[in-house]
Design brief:
Blueprint lengths: L2 H12 L3 H6 L1 H7 L6 H15 L3 H15 L6 H17 L9 H17 L3 H15 L8 H17 L6 H21 L2 H17 L3 H17 L4 H18 L4 H13 L3 H15 L3
Helix pairs in contact: 1-3, 1-4, 3-5, 4-5, 4-6, 4-7, 5-6, 6-7, 7-8, 7-9, 8-9, 8-10, 9-10, 9-11, 10-11, 11-12, 11-13, 12-13, 13-14, 13-15, 14-15
Length: about 290
């Protein structure tokens, strides 16, 4: 098996069976052939052992194995990637952030750690890292790669808080702050598609916070962006989902039209995506 095949297969499988992918990460280390392969493998290690499993020590052990096996040149991008990976997992474990990282690296480390901790309901620490990452990001240029990492974290933090039961008032505030921050960051780091998805995220966060009027406004913005850019059916499907739920929560009859529109978009979605969108459509059609 080639390294590229291993990496692609691992990413394809990790969401369904993170533990199994984690168990074979050492195989990826053995398949390394060049320095350029180190950063993507380190990213996979951090994502699987950190965000999915919360096994910080296990991730650190794998990063160290990777470093010893690959021995990247001093000052290389690979060495920097390993240093960031180690710092992320160490932060999540409760260690302090070492000195010496650039502002860009600090944002990437803090943002990734915040996202991982939010996935494991460590909201207070995630908020601390999230706010610090946002503060440092304001000192960076618009094209800095850290802006994208922060955009991803903002989205993931908002989504995690939407699902949290018995959310406190402070956590609800953080959810909305993160959703809006995601929209701001994607304006810098992405394109219209990312902006559309960020508007969807804001709409769903407002719905979760019990503010359907605000949710409706942002669902409409998502639809405007999607229509203006001839978005794929699946993107319009989710925008209509948010619009239908928001209108229904407001007691407006217009939700029925949005459900019908979602159904039309669903018909144009690929069979693979229909398989997991069908349950969402069923819930929309069950609204009364």
């Amino acid at each position: 098996m080639s390294f590229e095949h291993f990496l692609q297969t691992a990413w394809n499988d990790h969401a369904q069976d993170s533990a199994a992918v984690a168990n074979r990460l050492h195989e990826g280390i053995a398949l390394l052939e060049k320095t350029e392969q180190i950063p993507p493998l380190a990213r996979l290690v951090v994502h699987v052992t950190g965000e999915h499993l919360g096994e910080w020590d296990r991730g650190l052990e794998l990063i160290e194995q990777l470093r010893q096996s690959a021995q990247p040149p001093e000052g290389s991008d690979a060495e920097s990637a390993l240093a960031r990976s180690k710092a992320i997992l160490s932060l999540c474990r409760g260690d302090a952030l070492p000195a010496g990282f650039s502002a860009s690296d600090r944002v990437r480390i803090l943002a990734t750690a915040a996202g991982s901790l939010a996935s494991h309901a460590q909201i207070a620490t995630a908020e601390k890292f999230f706010r610090e990452a946002n503060k440092v990001a304001r000192t960076l240029g618009k094209t800095d790669s850290a802006q994208r990492d922060l955009a991803v974290t903002c989205n993931n933090l908002a989504a995690a808080l939407e699902e949290k039961k018995d959310r406190t008032f402070r956590e609800s505030e953080l959810m909305l702050i993160a959703a809006h921050a995601s929209r701001r960051q994607w304006e810098l780091a992405g394109g219209w598609l990312e902006v559309l998805r960020a508007e969807y995220r804001i709409a769903m966060s407002f719905l979760s916070a019990g503010k359907p009027s605000d949710a409706c406004r942002h669902a409409e913005l998502a639809l405007e962006v999607g229509v203006a850019n001839s978005a794929p059916p699946i993107e319009l499907f989710f925008a209509e989902e948010a619009h239908a739920l928001a209108q229904h929560a407001r007691g407006e009859e217009g939700w029925r039209g949005s459900v019908e529109a979602a159904g039309r978009h669903f018909s144009a979605v690929s069979p693979e995506d229909q398989a997991w969108c069908e349950a969402i459509l069923g819930k929309l059609r069950a609204l009364e």
